[in-house]
Amino acid sequence: SNPSLSPIIDEKENVGGKTPKKKSKGEIILSFLEEEVVMLQEMEKERALYYDTPSKHPLYENEWGKFWKKKYEELRMKGMNIGDYNMTPEWTVEWRNFFDSEHAKKAVDKKVK
């Protein structure tokens, strides 16, 4: 018998003392791929939410505060008034870079589990 094709026992199926159901390698791979699709769909929904309404993200206020302080100092050094400066375009890029980086780490973490 070829050991690489040996069935693997699904521990979740061993409920109530029943004999565990054996899954073929193909079934295991298919199950993994189905779970990955669901995870990616959930992450895409999360990305859309936080792109459209970033203030709902738990780290938004903290990141905005860091950005504002950095920009305030930068403008002050140039002798510019922060009230006359539109930070929105730069903040949008900064936020999305931060979020995408965090989102990518989360995707890797979920795939590892």
Explain what the structure shows.
- With 113 residues, the chain is mainly alpha-helical.
- The chain has three helices and two strands, in the order ββααα.
- The protein has a two-stranded antiparallel ribbon.
- The longest helix has 28 residues.
- The radius of gyration is 24 Å and the shape is rod-shaped.
- The N terminus is likely disordered.
Give the secondary structure arrangement, pairings included.
Layout: E1 8-9, E2 22-23, H1 25-52, H2 60-77, H3 88-112
Antiparallel strand pairs: 1-2
Quick rundown:
The protein is mainly α. The protein has helices at residues 25-52, 60-77, 88-112, and strands at 8-9, 22-23. A two-stranded antiparallel ribbon has the order 1-2.
Strand order of the largest sheet: 1-2
Q: Could you state the order of secondary-structure elements as H and E?
A: EEHHH
Largest sheet: 2 strands, antiparallel
Number of helices: 3
Strand content: under 5%
Mean pLDDT: 83
How many strands? Answer: 2
Calculate Rg over CA atoms.
Answer: 24 Å
Q: How far apart are the first and last residues' alpha carbons, in Å? A: 30 Å
Shape category: rod-shaped
Helix content: 55-70%
Name some characteristics of this structure.
disordered N terminus, rod-shaped, 4% strand, 113 residues, two-stranded antiparallel sheet
